């Protein structure tokens, strides 16, 4: 299925994050492949999603650390990966990525389209964010 929504503001992006949160909960999905060019709003979207999961600490981009973990008041952990600097599956493996994804957590993976990760997940929601002048277009495939 496909859901496409234009965001003209941070409030719109927050509403899209709420829709995705509800999808994850109702469909029992646990992995988001989050793609879009630099500055498209991937980290902002993840921040709002983390809020809906009840994560107290604010989301920030894990570009240099590869992973940020957020504890949820709702019993789920949110794993926020940023693969921008990762060049291969072998390099990703060295970060401990595959051990983390075995955890019962929600995984948001920025720049997921850089590597072929589909074989490692069954429950993917793919989100592509495109810039369009002063708007962002969220295309959600689930």
Describe this structure in words.
By secondary structure, this protein is of the alpha/beta class. 27% of the residues lie in helices and 32% in strands. It contains 4 helices and 7 strands. A 7-stranded mixed sheet has the order 1-7-6-2-5-4-3, with helices on one face. It is globular. The model has no long low-confidence stretch (mean pLDDT 91).
Write the layout of secondary structure elements.
Elements: E1 2-7, H1 10-27, E2 31-36, H2 42-52, E3 67-71, E4 77-82, H3 89-94, H4 97-100, E5 105-110, E6 124-132, E7 135-141
Parallel strand pairs: 2-5, 2-6, 4-5
Antiparallel strand pairs: 1-7, 3-4, 6-7
Helix pairs in contact: 1-2
Structural class given helices, strands, pairing?
A: alpha/beta
Helix and strand pattern: EHEHEEHHEEE
Low-confidence stretches: none
The fraction of residues assigned to DSSP E strands is 25-35%
Radius of gyration: 14 Å
Shape: globular
Largest sheet: 7 strands, mixed
Number of domains: 1
**CATH hierarchy class name:** Alpha Beta
CATH architecture call: 3-Layer(aba) Sandwich
User: What is the topology, as strand order, of the major beta sheet?
Assistant: 1-7-6-2-5-4-3
| Cα separation of the termini | 5 Å
* Total beta strand runs: 7
CATH third-tier fold name: Rossmann fold
Average of the residue pLDDT scores: 91
CATH superfamily: P-loop containing nucleotide triphosphate hydrolases
Portion in helices: 25-40%
In short:
The chain has 142 residues and is of the alpha/beta class. Helices cover 27% and strands 32% of the residues.
């Amino acid at each position: 299925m496909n859901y496409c929504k234009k965001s003209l503001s941070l409030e719109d992006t927050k509403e899209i994050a709420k829709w995705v949160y509800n999808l994850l909960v109702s469909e029992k999905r646990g992995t988001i492949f989050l793609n879009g060019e630099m500055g498209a709003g991937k980290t902002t979207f993840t921040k709002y999603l983390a809020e809906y999961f009840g994560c107290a600490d604010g989301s920030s981009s894990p570009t240099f650390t590869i992973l940020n973990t957020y504890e949820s008041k709702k019993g789920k952990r949110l794993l926020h990966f940023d693969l921008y600097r990762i060049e291969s599956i072998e390099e990703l493996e060295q970060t401990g990525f595959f051990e983390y994804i075995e955890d019962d957590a929600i995984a948001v993976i920025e720049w997921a389209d850089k590597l072929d990760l589909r074989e490692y997940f069954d429950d993917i929601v793919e989100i592509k964010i495109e810039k369009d002048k002063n708007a962002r277009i969220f295309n959600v495939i689930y």
